[in-house]
Amino acid sequence: MPRSLSRNLSKERRTPGLRKKSRADAVALIPASPTLHSLQQVCLGASAAQALLGKNFRVTRDRGNRMKSDLAPHVLATAHPASILRGPDPAAREQQRRDFVRDMLKVADLIKSKRAPAP
Predict the structure, then answer these.
(1) pLDDT per residue over 1-44, tens digit each?
(2) What CA dihedral angle connects 86, 90, 91 and 93, to 10 degrees?
(3) How many angstroms separate the CA atoms of 57 and 20, rounded?
(4) What 3-state DSSP class applies to 67?
(5) Contact (Cβ atoms closer than 8 angstroms) between residue 71 and residue 49
(6) Taking the CB of residue 7, how many other CB atoms lie within 10 A of it?
(7) Region label for 117, one of left (φ > 0), alpha (ψ between -120 and 50) or beta (otherwise)
(8) Per-residue pLDDT band at 66 (split at 50, 70, 90)
(9) Side-chain half-sphere CA neighbours of 2 within 13 A
(10) Which of 52, 66, 67, 72 is the most buried (most CB within 10 A)?
(11) Contact status, residue 38 vs residue 71, Cβ threshold 8 Å
(12) Three-state SS letters, the chain
């Protein structure tokens, strides 16, 4: 198959309208309820994080760190779980899985500390 035909076919297979989401698109999905909004915001993957936190966000640099945002008191971003499956080798996938679990435990700790009764 000629290369140009192959490229055209791959473009046709894409879902129409599939594009990176803008901040407005992402914010529209956040619940308006103050009780839900006041908890945590977790961004899974660079696309979600960049839509909410800005184009300067990098998963490799910023993952697992609490970020400042007007969306919620605690915003944390991490790698998308599907990216773990695309790791180059078993050792890299295992390390990525450990990093993801560590990030999710941070989120769990933040939620627990917010739900604990004040002394």
Answers:
(1) 444 444 444 444 455 555 666 666 666 656 554 544 455 778 88
(2) 30
(3) 14
(4) strand
(5) no
(6) 10
(7) beta
(8) confident
(9) 3
(10) 52
(11) no
(12) CCHHHHHHHHHHHCCCCCCCCCHHHHHHCCCCCHHHHCCEEEEECHHHHHHHHCCCCCHHHHCCCEECCCCCCEEEEECCHHHHHCCCCHHHHHHHHHHHHHHHHHHHHHHHHHHCCCC
Are the C-beta atoms of 103 and 78 separated by less than 8 Å?
A: yes
In the chain, the N- to C-terminal Cα span, in Å, equals 70
Angle at 43 between CA 72 and CA 10, to 5 degrees: 145
